[in-house]
Specification:
Number of strands: 5
Structural class: alpha/beta
Low-confidence stretches: none
Mean pLDDT: 94
Number of helices: 4
Strand content: 25-35%
CATH superfamily of the domain at 8-80 and 119-152: Ribonuclease H-like superfamily/Ribonuclease H
Largest sheet: 5 strands, mixed
Strand order of the largest sheet: 3-2-1-4-5
Order of helices and strands: EEEHEHHEH
């Protein structure tokens, strides 16, 4: 996939958590052919890794047909999990080498199901390094945290 290809959906995702576990938020920026869409949300009691996964899941759920995608994440957990570790997890019935069920298995199964509908290049980007898409996804994730924090007051 060519990075400059206008037929590619560019997605930037991020998760945030105040306390881990604690109040969490997720955010995603979707870009396609000059259009942009921002989405965000959050949960009252969660972990950062769950929010990172949920950001990718919610972004993929926005797509109405199979697409070519560059999904950018600053989470090695998400990027390596979906592109390197998941095949082994599935072979071993979603268990680690220590025979324990992997953490966040519900979200991994959903992400796997959604990812199979598309052609995705999972791109890792260094967080807080000035990448505009990542910075915007981070701000959206923090809006998710704020939204949940405000609801609790």
């Amino acid at each position: 996939m060519n990075k400059g290809d206008s037929k590619v959906v560019e997605i930037y995702t991020d998760g945030a958590c105040k306390g881990n576990p604690g109040v969490g938020g997720w955010g995603a920026l979707l870009k396609y052919a000059g259009y942009e869409r921002e989405i965000f949300g959050g949960e009252k009691f969660t972990t950062n890794n769950r929010m990172e996964l949920l950001a990718a899941i919610r972004a993929l759920e926005c797509l109405k047909r199979p697409c070519k995608i560059h999904l950018h994440t600053d989470s090695h957990y998400v990027q390596k999990g979906i592109s390197q570790w998941i095949d082994s997890w599935k072979i071993h019935n979603w268990r680690t080498s220590a025979k324990k069920t992997i953490k966040n298995v519900d979200l991994w199964k959903l992400l796997d199901q959604l990812a199979q509908q598309h052609e995705i290049e999972w791109c890792w980007v260094r967080g807080h390094s000035g990448n505009d898409g990542n910075e915007r996804a981070d701000a959206l994730a923090n809006r998710g945290v704020e939204m949940i924090s405000t609801e609790e007051k």
